[in-house]
Amino acid sequence: MLAKVDWMNMLFDFYGVLLTERQKDYMDLYYCQNLSLGEIAAEFKVTRQAVYDTLKRAEQLLSQYEEKLGLVTKSTAERKKLTAAAAILEECETAENGGRVQQARKIIEEVLEM
Q: What is the pLDDT of residue 86?
């Protein structure tokens, strides 16, 4: 699985609009801009604990959204399939192989049906 920071960034990209403004700010500063809890607390004039609690709640919400909607998982699967299709088509440019082209078309159709 992805590292926590990468995973949270992906969840934030997909579901960040569903968070409160404060949660968005903290998530952006902590995960995207790599600020510490103390730095965020100082900027917002709150305690480190308040920042920590808000981040944990935001993380839980993002994880719940992914459990229910699965958009990140679906997007990752689609990207893998499209990458595979692109690789197959690239092979077909150099080799005369109609079966491989048909396989690529099938993968692309699966992605479109998702």
A: 79
Q: Which two tokens stand for residue 82?
A: 């499209």
Contacts of 66 (CB under 8 A, 6+ apart): 11, 14, 15, 72, 73
Separation CA 77–CA 83 (nearest Å)? 10
Please give the structure tokens belonging to residue 65. Answer: 């959204």
Q: Report residue 20 as tokens.
A: 């409160």
pLDDT digits (tens, 9 = 90+) for 84-108: 887 887 777 666 666 777 787 788 8
- Spell out the domain ranges in the chain: 4-69, 73-113
Please give the torsion angle defined by the CA atoms of residues 105, 108, 113 and 114, in that order, rounded to the nearest 10 degrees. Answer: 160
CATH no. of 4-69: 1.10.10.10
